[in-house]
Amino acid sequence: MVALAPPSPGLARPDPRRVTLLLALATLLLALLSLGTGAAGLGPAELLSAWADEGLDRRAQVILWDIRLPRLALGLMVGAALAVSGALMQGLFRNPLADPGIVGVGAGAGLGAVLAIVLGGLLPAGVAAFVGAHLVPLAAFLGGWVATLLLYRVATRGGRTSVATMLLAGIALGALAGALTGILVYLADDRQLRDLTFWGMGSLAGASWPRIGASLPLILPVLVLSPLLARGLNALALGEAQAAHLGIAVERVKRFAILGVAAAAGAAVAVAGGIGFVGIVVPHLLRLLGGPDHRHILPQAALLGGGLLVGADMIARSLVAPAELPIGIVTACLGAPVFLWILLRRKGGMGL
Amino acid sequence: MLETRDLHVTLGRREILRGLGFTASPGTVTAIIGPNGSGKTTLLRALTGEVPYRGRISLNGHDIARTPGPRLAAFRAVLAQETHVAFPFTAAEIVRLGLEAGIGAHDPTLPERLLAEVDLPGYGPRPYHDLSGGEQARVQLARVLAQARQPVTPQGPGWLMLDEPVASLDIAHQLLVMRLAQRFARAGGGVIMVLHDLNLTAMVADRVLLMAGGRLAARGTPAEVLADTVLQAAFGCAIRANTPPRTGPWVLPQSVLADS
Lengths: 352, 260
Hints:
The structure holds two protein chains of two kinds. Chain A has one domain: ABC transporter involved in vitamin B12 uptake, BtuC (Orthogonal Bundle). Chain A contains 15 helices and two strands. Chain A has helices at 16-35, 44-52, 58-93, 105-119, 125-131, 135-155, 163-187, 190-201, 209-225, 230-236, 240-245, 250-272, 278-290, 294-318, 327-345, and strands at residues 156-157, 160-161. Chain A starts with 15 loop residues before the first helix and ends in a 7-residue tail after the last helix. Chain B is an alpha/beta fold. Chain B is built from ten helices and 14 strands. In chain B, the strands form four sheets. Chain B has a six-stranded mixed sheet, sandwiched between helices. In chain B, strands 2-1-4-5 form a four-stranded antiparallel sheet, with helices on one face. The radius of gyration of chain B is 18 Å and the shape is globular. Chains A and B meet through α10 and α11 of A and α2, β6, α3 and α6 of B.
């Protein structure tokens, strides 16, 4: 009826299941490579041949089971947690620049960790012995949770959570946590300063089976259950009111997304310190690759985030071997240019 | 049936709706008209449960203040004045958002069929953000039609609530949207829409609600409401309405020059 310009070519998006499969294979490959990389000089070839022959000798077994496997598992977990949290936050805030730090997890966890490092020595001996080496992760996790719950309370009135208020209150809370952290840094001695600097740069070096056991119950449910929020997050792309008209229980989606991020990102930051850019860059790359549908992005983020962090950890371990770089430096060096590239290639507006 | 009684809405300190009530029946198109700031959009947002109100609104017998959103969404779809989309979805993906919420079988060809209905054939794979304003508006309309694709649902008649659905459209597409709204009503659904164009109102509406200052200044058939004195009082400018017996009313503003 109306004269039409010929439709311009549309987007040919790859089959999401194939993308997922490819990401799974790539992550598996990286994981195997990572098992064969390390300061002990035990390469993939040796590992394979030892496996094929009469099994591993005692030394190789210890390296594999007590050092490399827990480190691999922690890398996969932390990377997946950060990337899925990033995807959840970006969907919730309708903003491709949001990351888990936006709900106060980063600021709160940082303050908790610094508190533990600087003032941990003042704890009664009984408590210190009970918590042991887990004091810093525990404090970081609690700090992240307290910050998130505080922000959530501030932003929620009459059962409705204002995402904008949460964002702005998060800036205020971040500044406050920064100031408190500054006071503690001022009080810290040289060794503590070194510890908290390295904590801020992130590391998987603390990987151990008990630590994995402690964070898995917080991370795994979020990874597995987050796709249940996918439909709600897709609808939220139209705005909260429109999503509600589409029949989405918007307040419930917001609540679960925020609590899920507090749990998963909080646990990840607690065990691995400050690792940046995974939460922002991974969902971005996935959107470029296969479109913004959260039904695919959420599971794919777990795969790509895990694979990316394992890859970054391999670089961190081999670049200055036998020493290792803090992994946060590697993710920032990889992530920041990618992020800039994404910003520069967008044609305009918020069409990310 | 849509029934409202003694509706008050206060936003901030300003009372926007100051006590109004009306009913609308399924099978009809109800147009809400009135000058800027008279409360048209606020009325629609109250009807869709978007703003808190005093008074009573019931849709198909459900008190909408107490009915969970998902249940309302099964028989009521809403088109906002403007919709900003946060991520690079394609046109078909936007339409599918309406489908996922609705009930019934998932027909993979439905998004393309609905896009064709709003005169966007083959637009499914195109990025939403690359479309023009009028095309984006029609994609959103297709999404709303996807959600309300049954004029009569198992939960009673379906309802379309449209806030200025033709604001960014050329005249041919304005007529297209009016035809779709009318078809929905003739098939047993109810349509409530905010309109600015008095001639489109005259053409398509079965009932007209004329708002002024947060109240209903007039209500009735187009022929009753679209009358010189009524319109001039509400809009505050010189307007002539003409009602030839065959075509129904048409409305002409008097020249700006003549007004001064």
